[in-house]
Amino acid sequence: MDYPQLEVLMGAYFHEDFDMYDGTLWGALNQFLKDSSVVENNVLLDDIERALTAMTHDAELDAYLEKLGSNVYRGDEPGGYRGWLEEIARRVRSAQTS
After folding, report:
1. Is the Cβ–Cβ distance between 13 and 28 less than 8 Å?
2. Which residues, including other chains, have CB under 8 Å from residue 82's CB and lie 6 or more apart?
3. What is the model's pLDDT at position 76?
4. Checking phi first, is residue 69 left (phi over 0); if not, alpha (psi -120 to 50) or beta?
5. Residue 24, SS3 per DSSP
6. Structural domain boundaries of the chain?
7. Is the pLDDT of residue 71 over 90?
8. 23 — phi, psi (to 5°)?
9. Do the Cβ atoms of 39 and 48 come closer than 8 Å?
């Protein structure tokens, strides 16, 4: 599976020190958005959509995101990893229209 911008986001922003971006998950995403182009954001949206279609179980998403470098645990959160990726996509779309 090839998800280039999802790999960048997980490996470079949601790594073990993700909290250096204002101490929150959304701070890390905001930094990604500052650092990326509209084209890269569109690729990320496509990556997320394809990943959610290809991986239907939360455990599968967890394992894959960890493989990409993510150090974020969402297993106990409402919506789990699927909900988290959906919220990331929503925020990326929102940032593009602002």
Report:
1. yes
2. 52, 58, 61
3. 80
4. left
5. coil
6. 4-97
7. no
8. 80, 10
9. no
- First-to-last C-alpha distance (Å) of the chain: 31
Q: How far apart are CA 27 and CA 18, in angstroms?
A: 8
CB atoms within 10 A of CB 75: 10
What CA–CA distance (Å, rounded) separates 53 from 63? Answer: 15
Amino acid type, 25 = L
What was the pLDDT predicted at 19?
Answer: 67
Q: In the numeric block, which tokens belong to residue 91?
A: 């925020």
pLDDT in tens, 36-49: 999 999 999 999 99
pLDDT band with cut points at 50, 70 and 90 for residue 15: confident
Structure tokens at 32: 């990604």
Nearest-10 crossing angle of helices 38-54, 80-97: 160
- Alpha-carbon distance of 9 to 15, in angstroms, equals 9
Percent with pLDDT over 70 in the chain: 94
